[in-house]
Design goal:
The protein has about 400 residues and is α+β, with helices and mostly antiparallel strands. The protein has ten helices and 19 strands. Bound molecules: zinc ion.
């Protein structure tokens, strides 16, 4: 392709709304607009990635610091749109809302008799725990939903010190919505003072820690009252016992026992579906220096950036064009900078765009039958005989 055909427009400055370095370099090098829309050069880059993705393991060959499980591949980045739990020790990785973690059960106690106590204005776990002087983990938190498919009332119990993961609940019961006041009253529960003890016609779902937690404080299903010493099995039972709670940073890895980290990330692939715009961003984020992009050879939109420096005696542009045609015939992908710009401008743009090899056709070297070759990430230029370049590039 030729520079002018692709209508490449590089930018001297980073956009003012630059969110990350990678985004900034992609915008400056003319792959995307400042509004994050793909430009023709970006489309070329994605076209190349699409071809690479015929090998479904290609993402692991781009030197990206990805984290993954059997289904998903993520790229950690502060602006990422998903939260991922990750164990750096064993690389356990999962969306945080679905992440498993090793739970610690409370020490076993003898079951004590139920006791109804007056608990005015204690309609949150915090207010209840502080009013009764019990730790939050000795309380049962109630959450009430209705299942979308049949409006079945769903009553959920997790330990008071933990957060429900609706994603995990949905895996157990299907799609849900919050229960209405009418539905709550009909079941015999009382909002803010609810427990599964004595409900009518409810699908009761409890976190798997609940059956092994004795003597929890739970609602009395009567405004202003709670029950002390509720016990699963004796006072109520559930249709479903499952892991329902949300993992957080510092929870214990279910695979190796080390602490989990929670990090922001972008999803790059799920099964064999690839999100190419995110992969392009991940490449730019990982592969750049202070002059521009430094794409790895396999992932660059073009193998070669070819340019000419205007000559006094020779038509270097025509020579470059000739060379461009022979590179193309040899199956090497080339971006030919066919503009009549000053050399400095082109060098800067070559660095910004980040093709792995820059070839410069200049008058003096041409007279010696040479072309200047520079690797994007190398420091030195090399002079190579015209006829040896193609063979060298095809290696
Ligand atoms: Zn681990």
């Amino acid at each position: 392709m030729k520079y002018r055909e692709l209508q490449i427009q590089t930018q001297r400055e980073f956009p003012s709304n630059v969110r990350t370095q990678g985004f900034g370099w992609l915008a400056r090098a003319g792959y995307i607009t400042r509004e994050n829309e793909l430009l023709p050069l970006g489309e070329k880059a994605i076209e190349r990635l699409r071809v690479l993705s015929n090998d479904s393991s290609f993402l692991f060959q781009l030197s990206l610091p990805v984290i993954s499980n059997e289904i998903e591949i993520y790229f950690p980045i502060s602006t990422g749109s998903v939260e991922v739990a990750n164990c750096p020790s064993c690389n356990y990785t999962a969306r945080v809302e679905l992440a498993r973690f090793a739970k610690t059960a409370l020490s076993q106690e003898e079951q004590l008799p139920l006791e109804k106590v007056l608990t005015p204005d204690c309609n949150t776990i915090e207010s209840l725990a502080s009013f009764l002087g019990v730790p939050k983990e000795k309380t049962a938190k109630a959450l009430m939903y209705a299942r979308l498919s049949d409006n079945k009332f769903v009553f959920v119990v997790v330990r008071g010190d933990m957060q429900l993961s609706e994603a995990k609940l949905k895996q157990q019961v299907g799609d849900i919505r919050p229960a209405t006041i009418e539905e709550i009253i009909k079941s015999g529960a009382s909002a803010g003072y609810a427990s599964p003890v004595g409900l009518n016609d409810a699908l009761i779902v409890v976190d798997d820690l609940i059956p092994s937690s004795q003597n929890l404080v739970a609602g009395a299903n009567e405004t202003g009252y709670h029950l002390k010493n509720t016990n699963y099995g004796r006072d109520y039972s559930a249709e479903i016992i499952a892991d329902l709670v949300h993992a957080k940073a510092g929870d214990i890895c279910p695979e190796c026992g080390k602490p989990l980290f929670v990090i922001a990330a972008e999803l790059l692939a799920k099964q064999n579906e690839f999100y190419f715009d995110k992969i392009l961003l991940a490449l730019a984020e990982t592969h750049h220096d202070d002059k521009g992009l430094t794409f790895p050879k396999s992932a660059a939109p073009f193998d070669v950036y070819l340019m000419h420096i205007a000559g006094k005696e020779l038509d270097t542009r025509a020579k470059a064009e000739e060379f461009y045609n022979s590179l193309q015939s040899a199956g090497i992908s080339v971006l030919f900078d066919d503009r009549d710009e000053r050399a400095g401008v082109k060098f800067n743009d070559a660095d910004l765009i980040g093709c792995p090899i820059r070839l410069t056709v200049g008058e003096k070297n041409l007279k010696d039958g040479m072309i200047e070759v520079k690797e994007r990430t190398g420091k030195e230029n090399q002079l190579v005989k015209n006829e040896e370049i193609i063979a060298g590039l095809k290696k």
